[in-house]
Structures are given as structure tokens and as C-alpha cells.
Design a protein that fits this description.
The protein is of the alpha+beta class and about 290 residues long. The chain has 14 helices and four strands. The radius of gyration is 22 Å and the shape is globular. Helix 2 packs antiparallel against helix 3. A four-stranded antiparallel β-sheet has the order 1-2-4-3. The longest helix has 21 residues.
Length: about 290
């Protein structure tokens, strides 16, 4: 088994040259995340040679980065894990762990109230915050989004803030009026190279990562008294017909969205004209498998 996994690592490195900085850094984060997990899964002793190989692999990737890239906070986090190996539990986890979460006693109810208040709104008020305020608030929402869980700590989700009316109207013909007329749009995509960099077994995780980020944006926006609407915008939709492909390609060209960014969603955000009626959910017992 150990020999098989070592050969698998070598085949991945050979198959994927890991040329771009994003690929290198994502692979380092991914491998260090897995190395750290050995503590929580109690498997380091039984699979020591495998994870020693991962340490050597991640270190070799780290050495390919320039000084500025190595100084990135996520790379410094990774370096701490590499330097702590094999005494990860004492030298890394124990030194950096927190005893518990610390929230106000009513925090769960507050969070639930925000989640429950969320609606998919499609009518926007005439009066809206200034463009600068919308931009600043979008940055706060994206800051919330990047705290979402992501597969293997790849951190491959990317965002584009859209405020300019000429940029929004590029979506006409592919998205409905409520989307391109919203005061603020946040495009969510995934850097596909990041998800292929260590093999193809986890490529669909890009959808999970983007969805988790989308909900962070939506919940944070709701807490700021904004209405939101999550708009489907994945590659199957944008390439479902020739017209859609043409509109999408023009959209990417005008907004400088790289070809390796796979589209997943667009979140429409703004002060609402009114809050739509609450759809009735099924009873909780209908959702629970027994």
C-alpha cells in the first residue's frame, strides 16, 4: 500500500507539472492540510512513510516559490506544519489550538434568525447605497465567503464584484432582469487548475466550495439588511445553447475573467422593494432519513 501511494504521488507530479503559482500554492495547502489531519485521525504512526513523502513533496513545491510568494500568510501556515513534522501535535496543534468557541449566549438564535429571514428577492428598491458603500460591503461579504470550508484547503473559489451598469447589462439574454438590474452582483467561479493539480478524483469539489462560499455571502448580506438572489450560472447553463455561449464569452472578455475560471453562480444583492412571502417548508421530519 505504501509503495502504491508513493507511486501515485509521483504519477500526479509527473502528470501535472504544477506550473502556475496558484497551482503550486493550492497543492501546498492541500498537502499540509492532509498532513495536519493525521493528528485528528490518529494515523501518522501507521502511515509515517506516506506522510513523510507528502512533507518532502510539499517542501519541494514551497522551494519553487519566490520570496514574496513564500511570505503569503497561507504559505507561512503551511511552513509551520512542514517544520513541525513529525511532532505535529505538540509543535503545531497544541501551540495554536483554542480551548473553545467564544460567542454571546444568544448567538445561535441570532444566526438562525438571519438564516430564516433569508429570501430570494427579485424586486429592488429605488433608493440604494452609494456605489462606494456597495463595493465596501461586497468586500465584507467576500471576506465572509473565504472563511467557508473548502475541500482540502485548496482555496480555489474566485469572485468578481460587478457594479457598473454596462457590465451588468452584458448578462442580458442569459440571465433574467432581476439579476442584471440588481444594484450589486458578485460573480462566483472556481479556478479549475487548482482542482486538477493533484489528480482528477476531487474535481467536483469546486461546486461544493463555491456553494459554501455563496451561502456565506448570502447570510452575511442578509445580516446587513440586503436582499439576495442566488443565480444559477454554471458551465452547463452558459453553454447550453449557442447564444448563451456567445454572451458568456463576451462577458468574460469585457470583465477580464480568465479562461481557467469556471463559472458557478452570480449573487444578486441590493436593498429590496419588499421582502417576498415566505415559502412554506415541509415539516422537519420529512427531511430526516430514518
Amino acid at each position: 500500500m505504501i509503495r502504491y501511494l508513493k507511486r501515485k504521488i509521483k504519477s500526479i507530479v509527473k502528470k501535472r507539472s504544477l506550473k502556475t503559482t496558484d497551482e503550486l500554492m493550492s497543492a501546498i495547502r492541500h498537502e499540509c492540510h492532509r498532513i495536519e489531519k493525521t493528528v485528528y485521525n490518529d494515523i501518522l504512526e501507521g502511515k509515517f512513510d506516506i506522510y513523510k513523502s507528502k512533507v518532502n513533496f510539499a517542501q519541494s513545491l514551497f522551494n519553487r516559490l519566490n520570496t514574496k510568494q513564500q511570505a503569503d500568510p497561507s504559505m507561512q501556515w503551511a511552513l509551520k506544519i512542514l517544520n513541525a513534522f513529525p511532532d505535529i501535535e505538540e509543535s503545531f496543534v497544541t501551540k495554536n489550538k483554542n480551548s473553545n468557541y467564544s460567542f454571546a449566549s444568544n448567538s445561535p438564535q441570532v444566526i438562525y434568525d438571519i438564516m430564516k429571514a433569508r429570501r430570494s428577492n427579485r424586486k429592488w428598491a429605488i433608493e440604494q447605497p452609494s456605489a462606494q458603500d456597495l463595493h465596501d460591503h461586497a468586500l465584507q461579504m467576500i471576506q465572509a465567503a473565504i472563511t467557508a470550508p473548502c475541500s482540502g484547503n485548496r482555496q480555489g473559489v474566485r469572485f468578481r464584484i460587478i457594479l457598473d451598469e454596462e457590465e451588468k447589462i452584458l448578462l442580458k439574454g442569459i440571465k433574467e432582469h432581476h439579476c442584471y438590474s440588481a444594484p450589486l452582483l458578485i460573480f462566483i467561479g472556481a479556478e479549475s487548475d487548482v482542482y486538477y493539480s493533484l489528480g482528477e478524483s476531487d474535481i467536483n469539489c469546486r461546486y461544493l466550495d463555491a456553494a459554501a462560499s455563496a451561502m456565506q455571502i448570502i447570510n452575511y448580506a442578509t445580516a446587513m439588511n440586503y436582499g439576495t438572489c442566488w443565480n444559477h450560472f454554471d458551465k452547463y447553463m452558459v453553454h447550453s445553447r449557442k447564444k448563451n455561449t456567445e454572451i458568456y464569452n463576451n462577458f468574460c472578455k469585457k470583465l477580464n475573467i480568465p479562461s481557467n475560471i469556471e463559472p458557478i453562480a452570480i449573487i444578486a444583492i441590493g436593498k429590496t422593494k419588499y421582502v417576498v412571502p415566505t415559502p412554506v417548508r415541509m415539516d422537519i421530519n420529512s427531511f430526516i432519513l430514518k
